[in-house]
Q: What sequence folds into this?
C-alpha cells in the first residue's frame, strides 16, 4: 500500500509526490516517527521552530490517515 | 571499436597506442539500474567503463545496512582496485541510474597494463580523484546540513547525466544522503523555494546550476577541479 508523507507546519506545506510502499498504517507511522526524529535533530541544531510541524500520512487519494506531530517524537523525561 | 565514439573520459584520455592494447577486448554493455558490477568478497571478472548513467560504490554491513561512499559515471572506471591487480573488493558496486558502457576482463586489463607503463597513469589518477571525492563526502556529511548536501549530490548527478532533467527518485536521494525517505521532501522543497530546482515525481529539473553551486557553499567543486587538473583535456599524461 502506498503512503504519502506530507510535512505541514503553520507556514508551509511540503507535499510528498512519490509515496512509499509499506505494509500497514502502523509501519507508515513508524517511518514518519523515525523521520521526524531525524528532522527534529536538524531543526534543533540550526535553531529552528519545531512547534506546529507534523507529518501528515495520506493515501493515494490524499485522504489524511494519521498525523505525527514532531513534538511527539521528543522525549522530555 | 573507435575511441572518438566513446564518452568515457578514461578511455578517451588514452593515447592511441595505449587504447589499441585494450580495444580488441572491450565489449559494449547495457547497464540498467541496479546492474551489479561487484559484490563484497566475490571474485571480480570485469572492469567497467561507463559511457552514461550513474553508479555507486556502496559500503555494506552484514546486517544489510548500507551507505553510498562514492559516485561515478562516464568520468571513471570501476572497480578501481583492479589497477593494482586485486580481484576482490569489500564494496557493493552497482548502477543507480541506467546507462551503458564498456567492459574488459580483469585478466585482459592486467595483460595490457603490463605491456605499457603509460596505460596505468589515467587509472591511477582516477583512483586518486575518486579518493578526493570520498574525502569531500566525509566533509559534507560531517559539516553540512541536509539541503546543502542535497545541492552537492544534485550537482554531482547533473555532471554525469549531462541533461537538466534528472530521473532520480526520492528513495535514491534518501540513500545518497543517508536520511529516511520522508525527510527528503522538505529538503527538496527548500531548494525549490530558492528556485534552484523543480521537483516532480521521480524527476528533478536543474533550473539554476550556478545558484546550486553557490548554495552548496564549498562542499561541491574541489573534487571536480581535481579531476580536470589531473584528467581534463588540458592535463598532461604524467605522474
A:
Amino acid at each position: 500500500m502506498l503512503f504519502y508523507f506530507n510535512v505541514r507546519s503553520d507556514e508551509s506545506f511540503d507535499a510528498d509526490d512519490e509515496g512509499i510502499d509499506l505494509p500497514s498504517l502502523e509501519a507508515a507511522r513508524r517511518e514518519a516517527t523515525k523521520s521526524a526524529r531525524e528532522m527534529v535533530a536538524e531543526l534543533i541544531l540550526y535553531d529552528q521552530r519545531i512547534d506546529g510541524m507534523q507529518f501528515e500520512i495520506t493515501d493515494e487519494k490524499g485522504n489524511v490517515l494519521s498525523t505525527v506531530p514532531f513534538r511527539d517524537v521528543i522525549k522530555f523525561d | 571499436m573507435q575511441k572518438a565514439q566513446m564518452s568515457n573520459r578514461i578511455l578517451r584520455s588514452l593515447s592511441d597506442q595505449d587504447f589499441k592494447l585494450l580495444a580488441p577486448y572491450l565489449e559494449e554493455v547495457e547497464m540498467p539500474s541496479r546492474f551489479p558490477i561487484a559484490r563484497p568478497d566475490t571474485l571480480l571478472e570485469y572492469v567497467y567503463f561507463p559511457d552514461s548513467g550513474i553508479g555507486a560504490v556502496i559500503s555494506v554491513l552484514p546486517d544489510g545496512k548500507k551507505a553510498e561512499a562514492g559516485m561515478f559515471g562516464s568520468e571513471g572506471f570501476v572497480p578501481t582496485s583492479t589497477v593494482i591487480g586485486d580481484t576482490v573488493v569489500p564494496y557493493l558496486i552497482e548502477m543507480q541510474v541506467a546507462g551503458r558502457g564498456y567492459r574488459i576482463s580483469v585478466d585482459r586489463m592486467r595483460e595490457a597494463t603490463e605491456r605499457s607503463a603509460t596505460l596505468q597513469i589515467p587509472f591511477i589518477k582516477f583512483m586518486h580523484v575518486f579518493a578526493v571525492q570520498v574525502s569531500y563526502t566525509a566533509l559534507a556529511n560531517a559539516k553540512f546540513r541536509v539541503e546543502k548536501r542535497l545541492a552537492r549530490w544534485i550537482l554531482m548527478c547533473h555532471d554525469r547525466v549531462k541533461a537538466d532533467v534528472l530521473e532520480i527518485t526520492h528513495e535514491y536521494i534518501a540513500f545518497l544522503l543517508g536520511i529516511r525517505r520522508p525527510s527528503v521532501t522538505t529538503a527538496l522543497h527548500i531548494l525549490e523555494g530558492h528556485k534552484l530546482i523543480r521537483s516532480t515525481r521521480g524527476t528533478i529539473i536543474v533550473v539554476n546550476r550556478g545558484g546550486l553551486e553557490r548554495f552548496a557553499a564549498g562542499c561541491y567543486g574541489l573534487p571536480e577541479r581535481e579531476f580536470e587538473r589531473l584528467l581534463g583535456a588540458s592535463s598532461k599524461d604524467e605522474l
Remarks:
- Residues 3-137 of chain B form a domain with the Jelly Rolls fold (CATH 2.60.120.10).
